[in-house]
């Protein structure tokens, strides 16, 4: 299983942030969008928020590809409708370019119990 972490900002407006969170409640999710996520090889997806910054963790099948997911999404009218709706709430990170939304993050630190026990 592969793990990816991504970031995106929301428009810094409390009402829009509350509405964005409302759309992401389990009962409000669109089944077609959830299916498209699974069909792309994403096994688990979590989104966290602090202020207007979002952080996503994706755990995927080994053969997952962002290019393949992008192609699947481009051919899915319901996913395109969802993305257009979500863009009302989202804004690109300052270093994003070419219409990027979610930006991959680089892991800069990891600590495991194994690391700790080797140094005691």
From TrEMBL:
Pfam family, one: rhaM
Coiled coil stretches, renumbered: none
Domain of life of the organism encoding this protein: Bacteria
Listed name of the protein: L-rhamnose mutarotase
Cross-referenced InterPro entries: Carb_Metab_Mutarotase, Dimeric_a/b-barrel, Rham/fucose_mutarotase
